[in-house]
Write a structure and sequence with these properties.
Strand content: under 5%
Order of helices and strands: HHHHHHHHHHHHHHHHHH
Shape: globular
Largest sheet: none
Number of strands: 0
Mean pLDDT: 83
Structural class: mainly alpha
Length: 482
């Protein structure tokens, strides 16, 4: 269970039985597992590559394939919760996620590992949107704000602690499992949460009786795949014709999705995404801010893990310990979020956090470029990761509640699914984009200097991403104020 449960408090909703503290912990454990499994593999990538003889494109698919599958199914997962009950779909998603994790842990080759990761991502797409929706249904007022803050903290801890957990598990080499234990650890956690869920989470079923929008589901999934798949596989295969055709089809597919959604709504149907929701300019600006942030979030963990283990030759445990500095910075500013908001007139300082993050990336670039000695690089990297983690915490923890604030209650469930989809799709897209830059700079004969140069280029990308977050949030805040 996520330690962010300790920060959450709940109060009864006027119409729906609320989960107690343990119920919130069980709900957040679903989010924690989904996020953890996106990031825990980063520290295991070199070990996977050696044992399974995987290509660099396959390594990217182990990360991006999971995120893409989750993103493609999140809105559909949210609608299934509307139709069949939040708790029921939460438990089904948790069961499928646990089974897929076991399949990842026993995969005999890289191809089956990627397939199991895609199945794991689809299970996460069923599991994760129920959490945000259940929080929105079960809590009100300040209790809901605290629960959303706990959710944001869970996202960050799953990402930052994933590296340390992976390093510890690989170093411990329990029963000779090595990197496989990073997936198999989900099995007992998932089974425990499954046993507790029906006892501590109320049903929280909506009254919706509308049918599932299958056409919309297929269009949004196809559009997402058409964007990310060629970016992941195209570079490795020399940008063949199919990769360009996929990218060319992406925009028409997503445009067709928007047209189909508006047409279905005009006929009185139930689209996956209500057009009225996307007419809310503050929400849309929040989605663009989320996109800009998350294309840099997963990318940071991906390239940092590769640089530490393959560029600096650190073992997985030492690499995980270095990542702990990032987690400490994140935890410090996340826990101080309410105090920081009061210092800035009641509004979370997201733009300031993005600038802190950009400064951390810039200083880390100077560190990597300026020290020829590995010992000096790591010695300076640790305090700079604290700065980067502090910036991440100032942005990530309050971003969810900021994006969802002020929406009409009838759109809360769908908005949660859309926001979760943007988060996961951006993670997958970011890994694909930074992989093109990182491996393109690294070349075919990598050495320590090559890894430093590739990581430096990746840091420039990350710095630009953080600056875009600051600009977009400032513009979004200005629109909200007006």
């Amino acid at each position: 269970m996520s330690s962010s449960c300790l920060a959450a408090a709940a109060a009864p909703s006027s119409s729906i039985a609320r989960p107690g503290p343990l119920g919130l912990c069980v709900m957040l454990s679903g989010t924690f597992l989904v996020v953890l499994d996106f990031f825990i593999v980063n520290v295991a990538l070199p070990s996977m590559q050696r044992e399974l003889l995987a290509s660099t494109a396959t390594l990217q698919l182990v990360v991006a394939g999971y995120g893409l599958a989750t993103a493609a199914g999140l809105i559909t997962g949210g609608r299934l919760g509307d139709l069949f009950g939040r708790r029921r779909m939460f438990m089904l998603g948790l069961l499928l996620f646990t089974l897929a994790s076991a399949a990842c842990g026993v995969a005999p080759n890289a191809e089956l590992l990627v397939a199991a990761r895609v199945l794991q991502g689809l299970a996460g797409a069923l599991l994760q949107p129920q959490v945000l929706a259940m929080i929105g249904l079960a809590y009100t007022g300040e209790d809901r704000a605290r629960a959303f803050a706990a959710y944001g903290l869970t996202l960050g801890l799953g990402a930052t602690l994933g590296q340390l957990a992976g390093g510890v598990l690989i170093h411990a080499d329990l029963a000779g499992l090595g990197w496989r234990s990073c997936f198999l650890i989900n099995v007992p956690i998932g089974l425990l949460a499954l046993a507790l869920a029906p006892r501590v989470i109320p049903p929280l079923r909506n009254s919706s009786t509308s049918r599932l929008d299958l056409a919309g589901m297929l269009l949004v999934a196809a559009g997402s795949v058409a964007v990310v798949l060629p970016l992941v596989e195209g570079r490795e295969q020399g940008w063949p014709l199919w990769s360009w055709l996929c990218l060319a089809c992406a925009l028409p597919l997503l445009a067709a999705f928007g047209f189909q959604q508006r047409r279905l709504a005009a006929r009185g149907g139930a689209p996956l995404v209500a057009p009225a929701l996307l007419a809310n300019r503050r929400f849309v600006m929040g989605l663009f801010t989320t996109l800009a942030f998350y294309v840099g979030n997963a990318s940071l963990y991906f390239v940092l893990a590769l640089y530490l283990q393959q560029g600096l030759a650190l073992d997985p445990l030492t690499s995980g310990i270095v990542f702990t500095s990032l987690a400490l910075g994140f935890f410090a500013t996340s826990m101080a979020g309410a105090r920081l908001a009061r210092r800035f007139g009641g509004k979370p300082p997201i733009a300031l956090g993005a600038l802190v993050l950009a400064a951390g990336h810039a200083l880390q670039f100077v560190n990597v470029a300026g020290w020829p000695s590995h010992a000096h690089v790591v010695a300076w990297m640790v305090p700079l990761l604290l700065v980067q983690g502090a910036g991440l915490g100032m942005v990530m923890a309050p971003l969810v509640s900021t994006v969802l604030a002020g929406l009409p209650p009838q759109h809360a469930g769908v908005a949660s699914g859309v926001l979760s989809m943007v988060q996961q799709a951006s993670n997958a897209l970011g890994v694909a984009l930074i992989g093109i830059l990182f491996y393109g700079r690294l070349g075919l004969a990598p050495d320590a200097a090559g890894y430093a140069s590739a990581f430096g280029l990746a840091l420039v990308y990350l710095m630009v991403s953080a600056l875009v977050v600051a600009v977009l949030h400032r513009r979004g805040a200005g629109k909200a104020d007006s």
